[in-house]
Amino acid sequence: MRYVWTILLGWLLAGAVAAQEYVELNPPRPTADPTKIEVIEFFWYGCPHCFRFDPYLEDWLKSKPAEVAFRRQPVIFGPHWAPQARAYFTAEVLGVVDKIHKDFFDAMHVAKKPMASEEELAEFFVAHGVDRQAFQSAFRSFAVDLKVRQAEAIAADYGITGVPSLVVNGKYAITGQTAKTYAKMIEALKTLVERERQALRAGMP
Fold first, then answer.
1. Which of 23, 76, 158, 201 would you label with 133, given CA atoms 20 to 30 Å apart?
2. Domains in the chain, number
């Protein structure tokens, strides 16, 4: 009983700190694995805010709790967002996301490259050690086509209207509008992950 009260007190304190830094999703969205705490980042490579937020998120990922299952989700809010989303999904199929992720941001925001045509993307992947034919096969594959089609709708399914945004365990959305700064987005993320860890340990939904 004392442990339960400790959890409840922790939730109250966390709520006082982060109440303005997230919104609750109603209804909660399902997660892939109920034994894990799912964290989704919604982003677009062409978004300057996503570019600036990425180092904050990468720092958090270095020490994220073992119970957290993290995934990135490109969004497509218009046709010109699609090529970069397709590039991400191609990297995912090829297993090279970690190899290309930061450099792709840099290519768009430091080198100011459009990163939009298949040829430009092919050159980028080849420069990162990917065989050109393997890139083309993945880039045009049914698996990537399916992921692109899903990306066109998934942000709306979660009520996401801007990026970068984070969704914690299908229950809470953290955005630039709610948290105001990148650092506060991470603070809210840590608070909500800890809340979900406590609930997971107590066997609570």
1. 76
2. 1
